[in-house]
C-alpha cells in the first residue's frame, strides 16, 4: 500500500491522457475533483491485488455520457455517491475497494474522488490498460465478467440500476438513463472480486500512468526529451513527427469520428501520416497502409512539451509526434483481437504488433 | 381470505373493463395469462387488509408500454418474474402480498398471474379504483407513497430498476427502458406496507370488479338488463343512450387521444353526447357543456349485452349506453382533484359529482 497525494493525481491524469489514445475525455476536470476530494478526505490508498483478500468485492465508478457536456459541470461527486449507495443496496454485500474500469482519460481519475470520500483503497489496475468507448471492451469481458449490474445516478438522487444479461444490453439500457439525466451521469459498475481481477484485469496500470506523467514532468524540468521519457516508460516507439495539416471530425450518435493528417518534418520530411479515430485513435496510416493499429496504443503528443492531445483538441498547425505503444498481452490473444481488434472497428487488416514494425532491426 | 377460480378471473376482467373507463388496455390477454397461471399453480388467494400483519410488504406488478403491441405477445410471465426477483433483491425484504396498482383494464388482472406463480395472496384493493394512464395518478401519491423503486424487465432477463425522487422521474426513467425492451415490459413497483394501504388505497375493489362482472353475466343469463346490474352495483347512473355517429382518435407520444359522438335514441332522441378521451374517458358533454367529468368514471357499454367497450374498439353504428359512476371519495378531496381533476387534463370546468346531476331529484 502506498499513499497518493495531489501531485500523484496530477501525474496520473497526464499519464492517463497518454494511455487514453486521444479519447476518454479530458482528465483535467476529473483530476480537479479527485484533488479536491483528497483535500477534503485525506490521502488516497493505492493497493496491489495481493494486498487484499481474494473475496474482497470491488466496483468501478465512472462518468457516462458524452465527454463534452462534462465541461458544463465541475464535479459528479453526488451522482457517484447516489450510484454507489444504490449499488451496495442491490449487491447486498460490502464493497472493499475501488478500481478504474479504464486507465485512459477522465474515467481513470474519477474513481479516486469516490474512493477518497468513502475511505476505500484504489486498486493498482484497470480493465483496459488504455481507453475504449464501449462497456464491453474490457479484458474482464474476456474472462466472462460483465459490467452489470451498473447503477447510474444524477445529482438529485434519481438512480437507475441496470442488471442485464450482457454488456450489449448494459450499454443499451444505461445510455438512455444518462441522456435523461442531461447527457452526463455518475455510474458505478463492474462488481468483481480481487481474486477474479488477478486473472482478468490489466495490472499495475495506475502506477504506469503515474510513471508516465512523472517522467514527462521531470524530463521537462531537467530539459530532457519528454517524448523519449514516454517511449522508455511504455516500451513504445516514435512513429512519426510533423505538423498537423488537416483535421476532420463529426459527431455521430455521441461518437467523435474523424481523422488527422500530419505532414512530416525532420527525418520524416516528404512523408505524411493519417490517423483515424472513433473517440480513440484506431489506425495510423502511411500511403494508405496501416502501420499501427488498435488494440495497440496510438498517442499524439505535443512535439516539444510532450503533452498528450485529445482528438477534440487537435488543431491545424500543431507540431506533434505520434507514438505507437504495445497494448497489454491479453488484447493480442485471439479473444482479445476478436473483441477489440481492427475488425471490430471496420478495418480489414491483420493486427501487427507495433514492435514488429518499429523496433530496431524489425523486418517489416 | 377466499379463493379465486377461473370464473372469478373472468368476472374480474369484465368488471375491470367497466372500471377502466375506456382505457387501461384490453383485459382479455391479461385474463388468459391469469387463468393459465391458476391452471398451473392452483387457486388464487384474495385477502382483505385486516387479514395480514400491518408490516407485510406489498408490491404491484404491471405491464408497461403501449397496450397495442401487447397483442403481439400472449404473456408477460417471465418479464414479471425477472422484475419481481430484482425488486426483492433491491428491497432486501420479503414480500408478503401482491396488489393491483389500478383496478381498471389489463393491469388489474396481470398481477394475479404473478401472485399465483409465487403462491402469494392478492389484496382486495387497488391504488386508483379505476384506470389512469400515469404512474403518479394513484391515491397512494396523495399519502406520500411513490411508485419507486420500480423494476422493469424483458423476457430474456434484462432488468432496469428505477429508484427516483418522485413519480415524475419514475415515469421518465422507466418508460425508455420499456421502449428498449420493445414497447411492452413487465414491471413491479409501488412497494408499500399493508398498514399504509389501509389508509391510502381504494379498498375492496377486486371484489367490486368481480361483482360487476358477475352481475353482467348473470343478468344476461337471466334475461335481465345488464346495464341496470352495473348501475346498481356501482351506484352509477345511465347518462345517455344512442348510436355512435363519429369516432376520431390519434396516437400522440403513446397516448390515444380523441372523442366519440353518440346520437341519442329512445328517451334521448334529438340529443347528442360527445365523450373526449386521453386513453381513458375524461369528460361527457351535451351541447358543449360537461355533464360528467374525471375523476368520476365514464363507461361506454354495449346497450344490449352490457359489454364495456374500450376507446380502441369504438366503431361507427354501435348502439351504446354511457354510464357515469362516482369515483372513490379520495379523488374528490382537494388533494385528489389537484392530482387528477379536470384541470390536470386541460379542462377548465369545476368538478361536479355525478350524483348531483343525475340522481333522482337532483337539482342540476
List keywords for this structure.
CV3147-like fold, alpha+beta, homodimer, 364 residues
Explain the overall architecture:
- Chain A is globular.
- Chain A is 33% helix and 29% strand.
- Residues 68-72 of chain A have low confidence and may be disordered.
- The first copy, chain A, has two domains: 2-203, CV3147-like fold; 236-358, CV3147-like (Beta Barrel).
- The first copy, chain A, has helices at residues 6-19, 27-41, 67-70, 77-91, 110-118, 139-142, 167-180, 194-200, 205-221, 226-234, 334-340, 354-358, and strands at 2-4, 44-47, 57-65, 97-100, 122-126, 150-153, 159-163, 184-193, 202-203, 237-252, 255-264, 272-278, 280-286, 289-293, 297-302, 319-325.
- In chain A, the strands form two sheets. In chain A, strands 1, 2, 3, 4, 5, 6, 7, 8 and 9 form a nine-stranded mixed β-sheet that branches. A seven-stranded antiparallel β-sheet of chain A has the order 14-13-12-11-10-16-15.
- With 364 residues, chain A is of the alpha+beta class.
- Chain A has twelve helices and 16 strands.
- Chains A and B meet through helix 4, strand 7 and helix 7 of A and helix 4, strand 7 and helix 7 of B.
